[in-house]
Give the backbone structure.
Amino acid sequence: MNVTFNNRDPVYIQVVRYFKEQIANGNLMAGQEIPSRRELAAMLKINPNTAQKAYKEMEEQGLITTERNYPSKITTNENILHGVREELIVAAVDSFMQSIRPLNISIDELLHIVQEKYSQESSKEVL
Amino acid sequence: MIEVNQLTKKFGRKKVLDGVSFTANKGEITCLIGINGVGKTTTLKAIMGLTPINKGSILIDGETINKNTYEKVAFIPDAITMLPQMTIKQAMQFMQDFYKKWNQERATELLTFFKLDEKTRISELSKGNTAKINLLMGLAIDVDYILMDEPFSGIDIFSREQITEVFTSHLIEDRGVIITTHEINDIEHLIDKVILLDNGIVLKEFNTEQMRQEEGKSVVDVMREVYIG
Amino acid sequence: MKSYIKLVNFEINRFIKIYLTLLIITLLSQFIGVIVIAKSKMDQAHEVMGEQNLSEQAYLHDYGGFTFAHFASTLWFVGPIALCIIALLFYCLMIWYRDWFGKNTFAYRLLMLPTARISLYFSKASAILLFIIGLLAFQLIILPLENTLFESLIQDNFLQTSMDVSSILQSNVMLGIILPPYFSDFLISYGIGMMFVFVLFTSILFERSFRLKGIVFGILYIIAAVLLYLSPLFILSNETYSVLYSEEIFAIFLVLGILITAASIVIGNWLISKRVLV
């Protein structure tokens, strides 16, 4: 795991976001075990208290479930998992919209550019 | 909890600490920051009873420092605290002889973690390895609090990494840690609480996550505000 | 108590190499000295006898024979004793300063031990005392051996008198002081000696606590202790008081000695527990 955190957002929120990304892109799957709080703290070089707080937040949001004395797992609730994907996509598109709207570009042109860029990036990744 | 109340310390006429108050909790990493000069080390020494204070009080779980509290708080100064001719093994034996709470298993675990050989002499240790051995001596007493004076200054990057790793591991679990430093890089995400000292007074005391959440400021942002204005 | 004993053991181990070296120097110097001196005395005697054409009897009549005291006054014998005394006096300072000076600061460790800090003070004092007693015992053990060796090297006729240990001790001023033949004298010498060690330790702690100012305090403390201890002498030189019996004078010195020692320990305890700096 390699994450760079920014210094201005609460670290626990960044951790939650990181997990959401991993869920959205399929790296973390429904029901998959996740590291303990301490392992996570060690991996991400963050304070164990912060890791704890992030897990608590994820539990509250229903992203993970913890049974006593067992490692926490990603939820198997499809609705929540789907929601995460949706949420991230919508958020990304929102911020994209925010920066693109002032340019007053037509929707066709925009879609065209997006399509081109997206396939370029993907082919790069394949290489 | 370590409570420092109105701590005042003079060197000659100069007040190095002028009514410093703060608390450090168990299970939290508290960072004493001061960009220039003395004060930080003196505070730690005062907590450990290694320098007399002029005014104020220091309580460790409600007790003033005494022989029993030395089993509760370990101080890791920016210096070698073992005899240079000792081997690491002998140094650990010395600790075991005197500390009831010495935990040899943990000491061995740390030694393996740091990849150090117990046959090495203290005098042969690099600055980074000295810091590690100092940390080992403190953690293996099974203390509740650890005070570290500039643990990262002047040591190599890998030693830094290893020491940082200890902070995120079970070895620190539930203990209270106070670190002094003048630079915050690398450990910004590691610390719970920051106390900004300058000219012998506490300029600001805050919780790092709270600061990020409520004001969207990094530790360095706050330092910039406070020190530079 | 347990930590005190461990500390004493620790302090002894830290000095043991130098200490054993001192013992070996003493042993070698004194035994080689016995051989060298006995041989040279005999050579001299024969030389004189040859030159002046004297018979053994005539030589002994004119010049007298030899005794162990002839050897005990040479540098071979006195030198290593003086060396040991100087080394231990120096170590009285070093036993403290070695923990503060140099690349390592062992004082941190010692002061943070979970034991009353006065144990450090007592352990260091005890170590010094044990070193002194060890040296004395060592000297007392090798002395009769040296004596036997000396007597076996001197031709029977030339041996003026065979000396036993107590007469050897009395024959030599230096030995008389470091190993008084009477036990009461022994206690007095070493009682005063230990009092001085405590006074010195406390003044060292003054320096370690108040640094520059502490040097002044420390020196003043030593002067005050010495003056106080010697004060009966000044008073006794005044005629009105010269009527005191020697037992009374002894009692006065005893009380003063105990007082100064106790004061040194009390002040030392305060300094090491509350004031000392690392």
Observations:
- The helical segments of chain A are 11-24, 37-44, 48-60, 78-100, 107-126.
- Residues 36 and 125 of chain A are 31 Å apart (CA to CA).
- Chains A and C do not touch (no CB pair under 8 Å).
- Chain A has two domains: 11-77, 80-126.
